[in-house]
Amino acid sequence: MKSAAVVNFAPERGSVELREIDKPIIGNEDVLLQVENVGVCGSDLHQWTADHSWPVNYPVVLGHEFGGRIVEVGAAVIGWKEGDRVVSETAAVINVNSPLSREGLYNLDPSRKGFGYGVNGAMTKYVSVPARCLHRIPEKLAFEQACLTEPCAVAYNAVVVNSDIKPGDRVIVIGPGTIGILCAALAVLSGAEVGVVGLENDKERLQIAAGYGCHIFTDNAEAWAKKQDGLGVDCVIDAAGVSATLKLALQLVRPNGQITKVGWGPRPLQFSLDPLVQKNVKLQGSFSHNWPIWEKVLSLLSSGRLDVRPIIGGVWGVNDWHKAFEAMHSGSIVKSILKPI
User: Residue 6: inside a domain, yes or no?
Assistant: First the structure.
């Protein structure tokens, strides 16, 4: 049986197309998932436009934000059955015996390979998933929302785990993409006063951030950052990743504050990091997520305390993947979702 799949087949710009692929054969510790919905991530767009900074195993099916129903269970799998509604983590290949994996930090295991770049992802009808990656989702949580557990987990890791944000803190998020807006929403849930900074052509996405209770800026946010005592905000979350945004973060953060960098950017900085030293600022990277983070996020989504519906700009069939990619790439919407079946 063959199914249509969105495949990144080469490193050159635009090397993504719809192809027919075979139904995966699962191993003893895997399940076969029939994909209900899969989110389009900024990293999918970066592979499409060939400006990513991570190795890709070409050709590869894109898609790592997904949920679906189990249709086949491997012989050694315990605790899962056909028909279960699940979402999947992204760490498709890890060394379970590495020191980091033994600490529960398998997301940082150097041998880690993820869906959509290291192994085939979920922009197709069926995907093989290690059972250890699965999380159960309640019936009341729609797949269109559940498939966004992954970007929510990225944001949770950046805001709750890797940033020291306390109620009453003031936080600026740079970049109103999916991760930036979710970081802002979680900072608000953490009790912070939050500002989100974008460009002039980000106005529609910034309005969505405003709906989460954030102040929004398309120009200089320095006056807002320093309005309380003239020193800057407690934490800046850089969700854009380009060099200029880290330089801006150094300007906006207060002495002894924190910058959390969750956005990727392959180009060199081209500026001095002396302000980081002079202001005694903590610079923290944040990458991916692990099991307890996913469980916390699913609790927030299921209860409605974290509502991802405002960021969903539309749902497209897999045959219309190009329209879904273009809608996000243009900045007119925050998040595109595909429905392979």
Answer: yes
